[in-house]
């Protein structure tokens, strides 16, 4: 799976994202709309972590899909 497929399946993956990062709101998930950079930024903001850590979490999540 590549990130273009994530964007295309975003509606189906919303629950998975919410399960992984429970601090993200429905509005956050709507705003992200499958965009990887937006996802990383919202995780960084919600959890108060460095961008590199948020990026690592997204990469790990993506690898498990």
UniProtKB/TrEMBL annotation:
Residues of the signal sequence?
none
* Start and end residues of each CsbD-like domain: 4-55
- Pfam families xref list: CsbD
InterPro entries per the record?
CsbD, UPF0337_stress_rsp, YjbJ, YjbJ_sf
Q: Which domain of life is it from?
A: Bacteria
Family according to the record: Belongs to the UPF0337 (CsbD) family.
Q: Could you tell me what this protein is called?
A: CsbD-like domain-containing protein
């Amino acid at each position: 799976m590549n990130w273009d497929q994530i964007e295309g399946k975003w509606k189906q993956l919303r629950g998975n994202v919410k399960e992984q990062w429970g601090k993200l709101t429905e509005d956050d998930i709507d705003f992200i709309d499958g965009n990887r950079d937006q996802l990383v930024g919202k995780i960084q903001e919600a959890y108060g972590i460095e961008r590199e850590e948020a990026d690592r979490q997204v990469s790990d999540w993506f690898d498990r899909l």
